[in-house]
TrEMBL record, chain A:
This is Alpha/beta hydrolase fold-3 domain-containing protein. It comes from Arachis hypogaea (Peanut). Pfam families: Abhydrolase_3 (PF07859). InterPro entries: AB_hydrolase_3, AB_hydrolase_fold, Carboxylest/Gibb_receptor, Lipase_GDXG_HIS_AS, Lipase_GDXG_put_SER_AS. GO terms for biological process: floral organ morphogenesis; fruit morphogenesis; gibberellic acid mediated signaling pathway; positive regulation of gibberellic acid mediated signaling pathway; raffinose family oligosaccharide biosynthetic process.
From TrEMBL, chain B:
The keyword Lipoprotein does not apply. Residues 273-305 are annotated as: Leucine repeat II (LRII). SMART domains: DELLA (SM01129). Residues 407-483 are annotated as: SAW. This is DELLA protein. Residues 17-44 form a coiled coil. It comes from Arachis hypogaea (Peanut). Pfam families: DELLA, GRAS. Residues 2-68 form the Transcriptional factor DELLA N-terminal domain. Belongs to the GRAS family. DELLA subfamily. It comes from the Eukaryota.
Length: 354, 492
């Protein structure tokens, strides 16, 4: 056992830059301390260890942020990231949001609702890794990003995260000041909504998008960054890559047990939307186009590829970005090609006319 | 420091990267092998300063008794950025947009938190800012018109926004009309306000609790201890410490308390009265107690010789300051003098709690904006309070601070709050090093908050060995602890 661990650790060392390896391994180690065998989670230690940053209404690299708290749901808040050209304010000085005006009356500004990852249990919208990622996303895509601090498991199981996602979608759509586009021409002034998420966040995006399509709510596109899907069956990639690149299958199982209703298995449609208990999305014509990014060294890739294939088979538009040598979490540090590929794809996806 | 890791909250020197990687591997392997390793590290081990990955790992390695790696790492793994070892075309981007430029990597952060229906209140904020700008530019007729408009807009607001706007408008009006508030505030009144503030929201309780944790740890194994409190007020911090000392295994130490405070307006000896009450408590819990009250207009008037210090072999000293040090920044040289006196005291530990904001910047507009954001969040957190009288008193308590920050200047402006980062620099320059507060203090502080009725928006955060209490995502106060940098030197 010890011997094969050593081989595994060395393998992952050879495919990512050293500081990335340190970052992801450090998370892995911390996460191992937090999951308990009895299914409970050491939340106090998790919050102690998580590196958090406050919002900042002083623009940094042209991006400023503020938090909006929804007091009806414990812990639910959105962190909004904007470019300071979309609001008044000179560099260095505080920006006060101007909620009487749209983002633009001439251009379209995509608003990306972002759901952070963490396997439904870890991280927050104000975690430093996600705050940093969202800021970069804003600048790369000239969008507004709304990062959702959804309720986490095991304290809040399915469907809490999805409900919070829905609440966020409704909130974003109803903000007059998040609208953009010309008000007189063919494109109306409205909120140009996209949704994005990594890991469990990607899973949330899918489920919120299904509901939106069913209820006739417009979402212009989904971005799923190595999304969390699974099933009872063990796929070839899960077996081949188990324990090799930062992720162990048994840990994945733990997180599903913590998220899904007690007693449920991984063929529950939350986990396996197109599996034996899933449903077809054929005919759900307003389901948004989807960008699925798969990391070639992620043991869940078979599920993610099957997801993309299923969407295609339902005649939905899918862009697949397969990054052969990427591990999970490649996008946390911008020190590799995969990061730039992903950012380019996202930019093209939310700015299709540019 | 590795810049990319720093931005995501971790401090690792680039030159240490390979060593940190090695520790991670070591620990991972040991955790896999040790039977109860994980549960021990999770439940029993006290963790400190997770931003410093190297030391964090080292603590756990020591706790698990991990043997050194069986063979030295292979040579090619030593070079941190050996790109040949990386599959694919991984490169380091030097794109300007991701590299922090010196001018923009400012440490000033101005968090903004809006609650629910406050979008209407944003217009009020815009008007307040416009008024402050007008005052700043000495356009007093415009400022006057705007102040009146604020009053008008505020009436239609509900909750925290209305109250905050009213206090800030009043402070601006004072500035416009030159009606500066009288100072100092009568001490007995402000003491009374502080008591209500203590009851209505957990900031003072958190401050006392976390400072006491650090003091207790520093006093471990000492038989005679002495606390010098720069912020005596009504002595509310000390019953809990005394009770904790009374319950110490092996019995309590002898406890001496020196309480320092400004003179009472009515010339009463309120410091002595507080001391009497604490003496009565000490008697009921069987703690040997000694007390001395010291009246001083300013902490800078103190000298170490006045404090009747005893040899450090017989008595361990803690210096405690809760929301006091910032007042010294109103006079040049005062804080430096006080810190040098603290050095002369040779304390085991110095505990400091301060407001987490920069209300001491040179520019009026910056101060105004910063305090507007800060007190808006503070007032928000009071909204859920159960007892309305406590709430009103707390608002008055905070309102006086607002007035001081906005309407006063020079030596009268005593609410010169500075951030944890700024205090770290001061203490570092004055010859102190940090004493870290750990996961045990964090956990207990979190539990304390959970018991606190009136709002579940309070959050404890760990910040490089210090603990902060905030409302939702905005830290509002910070507790830090310090020791002399040359503490390891025996002779003095």
């Amino acid at each position: 056992m010890a011997g094969s661990n050593e081989v595994n650790l060395n393998e992952s060392r050879s495919v990512v830059p050293l500081n990335t390896w340190v970052l992801i391994s450090n998370f892995k180690l911390a996460y191992n301390l937090l999951r308990r065998a009895d299914g409970t989670f050491n939340r106090e230690l998790a919050e102690f260890l998580d590196r958090k940053v406050p919002s900042n209404s002083i623009p940094v690299h042209g991006v400023w942020s503020f938090d909006h708290v929804d007091q009806r749901i414990p812990g639910l808040f959105y962190r909004l990231y904007l470019q300071d050209s979309h609001q008044r304010g000179c560099a260095g000085a505080t920006v006060i949001p101007d909620m009487d005006k749209p983002l633009s009356t001439t251009d379209i500004v995509p608003v990306i609702i972002f759901f952070h990852g963490g396997s439904f249990s870890h991280s927050s919208a104000n975690s430093a890794i996600y705050d940093t990622f969202c800021r970069r996303l804003v600048n790369v895509s000239n969008s507004v990003v709304v990062s959702v601090n959804y309720r986490r498991s095991p304290e809040h199981r399915f469907p809490c995260a999805y409900e919070d996602g829905w609440t966020a979608l409704e909130w974003v759509r109803s903000r007059k000041w998040l609208r953009s586009g010309r008000s007189e021409s063919e494109s109306e002034s409205k909120v140009y909504v996209y949704m994005a998420g990594d890991s469990s966040g990607g899973n949330i995006v899918h489920h919120v998008a299904v509901r939106a399509a069913e209820e006739g709510i417009e979402v212009l596109g989904n971005i799923l960054l190595h999304p969390l899907f699974g099933g009872e069956k063990r796929t070839e990639s899960e077996i081949r890559l188990d324990g090799k690149y930062f992720v162990k299958l048994q840990d994945r199982d733990w997180y599903w047990r913590a998220f899904l209703p007690e007693g449920e298995d991984r063929d529950h449609p939350a986990c396996n939307p197109f599996g034996p208990r899933g449903r077809s999305l054929k005919g759900l014509t307003s389901f948004p186009k989807t960008l699925v990014c798969v990391a070639g060294l992620d043991l869940l890739q078979d599920w993610q590829l099957a997801y993309a294939n299923s969407l295609s088979s339902f005649s939905h538009h899918v862009n697949l970005l397969y990054l052969k040598d990427a591990t999970i979490g490649f996008y946390f540090l911008p020190n590799n090609d995969h990061f730039s590929s992903l950012m380019d794809q996202i930019n093209n996806f939310v700015n299709p006319n540019c | 420091m590795d810049e990319l890791l720093a931005v995501v909250g971790y401090k690792v020197r680039s030159s240490d990267m390979a060593e940190v990687a090695q520790k991670l591997e070591q620990l991972e392997e040991a955790m896999g092998n040790a039977r109860d390793g994980i549960s021990q590290l999770s439940n029993d081990t006290v963790h400190f300063n997770p931003a410093d990955i190297s030391n964090w790992l080292e603590t756990m390695i020591n706790n698990l008794d991990v043997p050194p790696p069986p063979h030295p790492p292979l040579p090619q793994q030593h070079s941190d950025y050996d790109l040949k070892a990386i599959a694919g075309k991984a490169i380091y981007t030097t794109a300007a947009r991701v590299k922090p430029s010196p001018a923009e990597s400012s440490s000033s952060t101005r968090p903004l938190v809006l609650v629910d229906s406050q979008e209407n209140g944003i217009r009020l904020v815009h008007t307040l800012m416009a008024c402050a700008e007008a005052v700043h530019q000495n356009n007093l007729s415009l400022a006057e018109a705007l102040v009146k408009q604020i009053g008008f807009l505020a009436v239609s607001q509900v909750g925290a926004m209305r109250k905050v706007a009213t206090y800030f408008a009043e402070a601006l009006a004072r500035r416009i009309y030159g009606l500066y508030p009288e100072n100092p505030i009568h001490h007995s009144f402000s003491d009374m306000l502080q008591i209500h503030f203590y009851e209505t929201c957990p900031y003072l309780k958190f401050a006392h609790f976390t400072a006491n944790q650090a003091i207790l740890e520093a006093f471990q194994g000492k038989n005679r201890v002495h606390v010098i409190d720069f912020s005596m007020n009504q002595g509310m911090q000390w019953p809990a410490l005394m009770q904790a000392l009374a319950l110490r295994p092996g019995g309590p130490p002898a406890f001496r308390l020196t309480g320092i405070g400004p003179p009472a307006a009515d010339n009463s000896d309120h410091l002595q009265e507080v001391g009497w009450k604490l003496a009565q408590l000490a008697e009921t819990i069987h703690v040997e107690f000694e007390y001395r009250g010291f009246v001083a207009n300013s902490l800078a008037d103190l000298d170490a010789s006045m404090l009747e210090l005893r040899p450090s072999e017989t008595e361990a000293v803690a210096v405690n300051s809760v929301f006091e040090l910032h007042k010294l920044l109103a006079r040049p040289g005062a804080v430096e003098k006080v810190l040098s006196v603290v050095r002369q005291i040779r304390p085991e530990i110095v505990t400091v709690v301060e407001q987490e904001a920069n209300h001491n910047g040179p520019g009026f507009l910056d101060r105004f904006t910063e305090s507007l954001h800060y007190y808006s969040t503070m007032f928000d957190s009071l909204e859920g309070s159960v007892n309305s009288q406590d709430k009103v008193m707390s608002e008055v308590y905070l309102g006086k601070q607002i007035c001081n920050v906005v309407a006063c200047e020079g030596v009268d402006r005593v609410e010169r709050h500075e951030t944890l980062g700024q205090w770290r620099t001061r203490f570092g320059s004055a010859g102190f090093t940090p004493v870290h507060l750990g996961s045990n203090a964090f956990k207990q502080a979190s539990m304390l908050l959970a018991l606190f009725a009136g709002g579940d928006g309070y959050r404890v955060e760990e910040n490089n060995g210090c603990l902060m209490l905030g409302w939702h995502t905005r830290p509002l106060i910070a507790t830090s602890a310090w020791q002399l940098a040359t503490k390891s030197v025996v002779a003095h």
